[in-house]
Amino acid sequence: EVQLVQSGAEVKKPGESLKISCKGSGYSFTSYWIGWVRQMPGKGLEWMGIIYPADSDTRYSPSFQGQVTISADKSISTAYLQWSSLKASDTAMYYCARGLYSGSYNGFDPWGQGTQVTVSS
Amino acid sequence: QSVLTQPPSASGTPGQRVTISCSGSSSNIGSYTVNWYQQLPGTAPKLLIYNNNQRPSGVPDRFSGSKSGTSASLAISGLQSEDEADYYCAAWDDSLNGYVFGTGTKVTVL
């Protein structure tokens, strides 16, 4: 079974750093793009960026470029989303999702269960 | 804000047909296939329709998708209570060089 399992909920203070993870299983991790999506409380889905684990080719949405870093460790089939200095406005649910087809990034399935990030002083 | 526009809400009684529109442009829907996602309350999004009109295994055939020019539609026929959810269209966008989601539509079963 193809599965993405994300790390647990985080509560952080403004200015702190954070790295959340997304572990893939049941498929060839290096052959599929992994994307990250933000959902702020009560709001819609926002695409943040994608990474191709085979060579770490990374693309960012203009809205998130410079705000977060997407990375991957193919040796442990895990993708990451990290912040160097969190803001209260980063409070949201974050989802990872796999590209629909090998080598494709127009469409994502399956999705991880989500990681809730709360930033509060 | 999103470049794909959907109505904020849609509703129907059980058994009715509900249609959700998704309006884009030549840089997204006009050039790429459209996907639809269903997000049930408190859960992660799930792929509902891919390649404009294809259903993944396990998705009931009462869900159907279509695309024409720079617009797409999702239809739910024989509406059921378990279809109450948020629905999002999405596609790649050349101008943004990224994947874009629609504004989302909340479907309510009356």
Sequence-ordered SSE layout with sheet pairings:
The complex is a heterodimer of chains A (121) and B (110).
Chain A: E1 3-6, E2 10-12, E3 18-25, E4 34-39, E5 45-52, E6 57-60, E7 69-73, E8 78-83, E9 92-99, E10 108-111, E11 115-119
Chain B: E1 9-12, E2 18-23, E3 35-39, E4 46-49, E5 63-68, E6 71-76, E7 85-93, E8 98-101, E9 105-109
Quick synopsis:
By secondary structure, chain A is an all-beta fold. Helix content of chain A is 0%, strand content 50%. In chain B, strands 1, 3, 4, 7, 8 and 9 form a 6-stranded mixed sheet that branches.
Explain this structure.
The complex is a heterodimer of chains A (121) and B (110). With 121 residues, chain A is mostly beta strands. In chain A, 0% of the residues lie in helices and 50% in strands. In chain A, strands 2, 4, 5, 6, 9, 10 and 11 form a 7-stranded mixed beta sheet that branches. In chain A, strands 1-3-8-7 form a 4-stranded antiparallel beta sheet, with no helix packed on it. The N and C termini of chain A lie far apart (40 Å). With 110 residues, chain B is mostly beta strands. Chain B has no helices and 9 strands. Chain B has strands at residues 9-12, 18-23, 35-39, 46-49, 63-68, 71-76, 85-93, 98-101, 105-109. In chain B, the strands form 2 sheets. In chain B, strands 1, 3, 4, 7, 8 and 9 form a 6-stranded mixed beta sheet that branches. In chain B, strands 2-6-5 form a 3-stranded antiparallel beta sheet, with no helix packed on it. Chain B is globular and about 40 Å long. Chain A binds chain B through residues 35, 37, 44-47, 49-50, 59-62, 95, 97, 100, 105-114, and chain B through 2, 32-33, 35, 37, 39, 44-47, 50-51, 56, 86, 88, 90-92, 96-104.
Features:
heterodimer; A: 121 residues; mainly beta; 7-stranded mixed sheet; 4-stranded antiparallel sheet; 11 strands; B: 110 residues; 6-stranded mixed sheet; 9 strands; 0% helix; globular
